[in-house]
Amino acid sequence: MHPCQFLLGLGGNLGDRVHHINQAILKIKQIPGLVILDISEAVDSDPVGYKDQGNFLNICLAVSYKKDGLSLLSEIQAIEQKGGRVRTIKDGPRTIDIDILFSEMGPEESNRLTLPHPRWRERGFVIIPLRQLLHSPVIAKEKTWDWLRTEVDRLNRSDAGLRLWQGPTPWKTILR
Predict the structure, then answer these.
(1) What would the pLDDT profile of 115-126 be if each residue is shown by its tens digit?
(2) Which domains does the chain have, with CATH numbers?
(3) CB 117 within 8 A of CB 107
């Protein structure tokens, strides 16, 4: 199978957020047939939905993967589980959350996976790092994402509750 590009969203708000995201990225990098193309800047965000919890740290990744979206979903769900992800409260606290946001293959609908992610437009913590990723030197030259770049740039979303992360970003060394 020809490699397909996917855009992923990662976030978490329990424990050492930087450590959990970094570990998840390191594990994503180890998925056979997957290459990490680029990593966005991180965003510190207020919780959405369930408010009685700490802030989240969120980033987006662009990856190339030699299998389909359902195979990637199985891989990232295993990473979430090994990373201590427990699904008890909708939009609740978590060590790590990994979502497949988009596939270059276009829309996909199954009982396990819907692409594009159905709530991506509602989430500033996705839009801000996604916009940055789509305009990064590596991904900006990818014509595959022109339609999405236009769509994201058109969205006039408030940055309320979102802050560019000023702390450590150990995952930035992963691409070197």
Answers:
(1) 898 888 888 899
(2) 4-175 (3.30.70.560)
(3) no
